[in-house]
């Protein structure tokens, strides 16, 4: 070995040593900073969660969507306020929920922009002002009147569901409601957004967006830790991404499909095949609230993914939960069926106004919505203008603070036996023990300026679908139990145990 190479070997090992020392010093300083000097250092919680986001990553990625559950256990130990990552505070206090989400109209939402690969859709929009104009552009399409203008199309899809039920009855085969409902809600929202649908409800196996949206949710945990994932996925050809990550294929297909639909519309193709006078898509394109930068191909694709996504899984899960519990509880079924018999003496009729007067049906919908949560994820907000006060705590301005809907749905003080399906808890002048109206704690549609935009559409679908089903049919569960509707994983939306075969039922038409 010559002198030159000895010298260069020595300097290489010096560089390596120096790098190691620098890394150790950096990590130690970061740990000391996050534990003792960080503005959130005084907040309770596990030290590991305060030091590194890998604590969160372990529960979300390795254990597949279990951090929400862990956080609930941590609240039992540390109290209502916790530091759950180095930069985030979580609060579990049902009585603070309303105040937290409505405390200011200038709340920003950091974090969800990385989750779905559609950062400029309404739901994940970070800045409150951008959100305000994007929401204004969509609002009129979600008013009661607009939904009533669209209701004949919802009726058509519910008729198709009824025809499919007759088919399964004739074949004496179990029907998979877990798959049928996303096909129903998918066809409805496609008709409303684009003006046509993929007839997923007519597909023999109810092929739908269901799997793709579950994948979006699951990948969100990865994207939270590695925000480059979606930008990389978007920049690679689909074939390569699909080869690298086969489980992303349904998601890629969905994204590609929506991208192409928007390209065709922008190029002047008419996709609309239904008789609707306006689609959500046209409404966005014509909106005076939006600047040109909000009408680009990419932004429209983001909005399509978010609105179609918002319209599919949430309502479908609430329908699945309602159906399972009503079928599983003969007394609930009997009471509901009797009520529907009075409201709709003619079995072919499905009338929204009449169904809305059915108190017990409404109570069943409240209960299934409570148990379906809408979203199971921590729902972050940032008070950027001033510190947020919670009890004796002052949370510095600019801190991400989150609360979680399932925490309220399962607050035993407010909803005793909260895991059980008890529609009766909503009847009459329902109140908590200390006299607060119970509806105040129905938070599954969120609260404040960013609460669910599709609430009227969701309620309309729930009334019409459940009204039709439990007026016209009787059902028997086939190899399904409560674990097929309980949350096993928080993939942003609640997901049941992963090996669930779904809620399968035998169908029989009623004779009355
Ligand atoms: C049972 C059914 C549903 C439930 C429980 C539900 C729940 C929710 C929740 C909790 C949020 C608020 C997220 C937040 O606070 O940041 C939300 C937002 C949203 N939902 Fe729903 N949803 C349902 C059905 C629908 C339907 C049918 C649509 C129709 C497209 C829809 C569209 C949206 C949209 C666009 C947003 C974003 C609103 C915004 O950021 O301003 N949802 N939903």
Note down, in words, how this protein is organized.
The longest helix has 35 residues. This protein has one domain: Cytochrome P450 (Cytochrome p450). The protein starts with a helix and ends with a strand. It has 19 helices and eleven strands. Strand 1 and strand 2 form a beta hairpin. It has a four-stranded mixed β-sheet with strand order 1-2-7-4. Strands 3-11-8 form a three-stranded antiparallel β-sheet. A two-stranded antiparallel sheet has the order 5-6. The protein has 512 residues and is α+β, with helices and mostly antiparallel strands. 42% of the residues are buried. The radius of gyration is 25 Å and the shape is globular. It is 53% helix and 8% strand. It binds protoporphyrin IX containing FE. The site of protoporphyrin IX containing FE has 25 residues, from helix 14 and helix 19.
Set out the fold topology:
Layout: H1 3-37, H2 47-51, H3 54-62, H4 67-78, E1 81-85, E2 88-91, H5 94-102, H6 128-139, H7 144-171, E3 175-176, H8 177-193, H9 210-225, H10 229-235, H11 238-244, H12 249-266, H13 280-286, H14 297-328, H15 330-343, H16 352-356, H17 359-372, E4 379-382, E5 388-390, E6 393-395, E7 400-403, H18 405-409, H19 455-472, E8 473-478, E9 489-491, E10 493-495, E11 504-509
Parallel strand pairs: 2-7
Antiparallel strand pairs: 1-2, 3-11, 4-7, 5-6, 8-11, 9-10
The protein binds protoporphyrin IX containing FE (HEM).
Family: Belongs to the cytochrome P450 family.
Cofactor: heme
Keywords: Heme, Iron, Metal-binding, Monooxygenase, Oxidoreductase
